[in-house]
Amino acid sequence: MPDVDRGLIAAAVAAHVPSLGSEATTPDFQRSLVGGLREMGAEIRAMKPDVLVVESAHWVSTFNWFATLQDPHRGVCVATEALELIPGTPYERKGDPEFGTALIEAFKPHSVPAFPNASEHYSWDYAGLIPLLYLDPDAEVPVVQIPTVLAADYSECRLAGRLVGEAARATGRRAVFVASSALTHAVVRGRHNWPTPARMELDRKFIDLVRAGALDRIDAWFPEYAAAVKAEMGGRVIATLLGAMQALSAGGSKLSGRQFGEYTQSSGSGNVNLLITPVH
Hints:
Radius of gyration: 17 Å
CATH superfamily: LigB-like
Number of helices: 7
Strand order of the largest sheet: 7-2-8-1-12-9
Order of helices and strands: EHEEEEHEHEHEHHHEEEE
Oligomer: single chain
């Protein structure tokens, strides 16, 4: 069995719809996402993680993987596509450059391009910030962020998820991977709009499989599912989650998933908060 004290200890899907950037702009039908993120955050913090590794669906890299090395992370988040909701939110959170460096190094034996992001001018996008506002409201846990890579296929994304676990073991960290992504993402104007019934049905099947910890079934079905629902970023962020789940199940550990809050609409997208842990 894997060492339960060090390494990857949990993986999560977290909603990041821009109306969650401030409770003043969160409509009633999305408040369950806020409550769910808060409850899931309390569960995660109770595990005493050393680092949260966040893959943002909105940090888009064409070819290369990166890991943030800033410590602290400090800046102003501006939602360039939703300036009326997030015109400028200041943030300051601890980083973990040792873990970020270890993650970059972990890619090298696989001939996958990965580089440090130590730019003092770099600022977070809202998909990287919003979940953390509720998962860790007091900014206590260090954060490393990674992008979504367009040139990466599902296999490479799964590799990235597994390497999060490898880097955590190498650095002696208790790490939690957070996939900041919607499920179905065929967006339309109007936050109140639901996905189509067919896409909601597929999302609910995916959620049920995650809750059951049925990783083999998800892996086999995932390409069909991601194409059918028009998953955010082509499903790449969720594919990295599947790799993190593979790391969690190493050594034969069974997995269990829990949903926090309701499955909720935002402009035709489907959004949910899920936490996956090994069953010891």
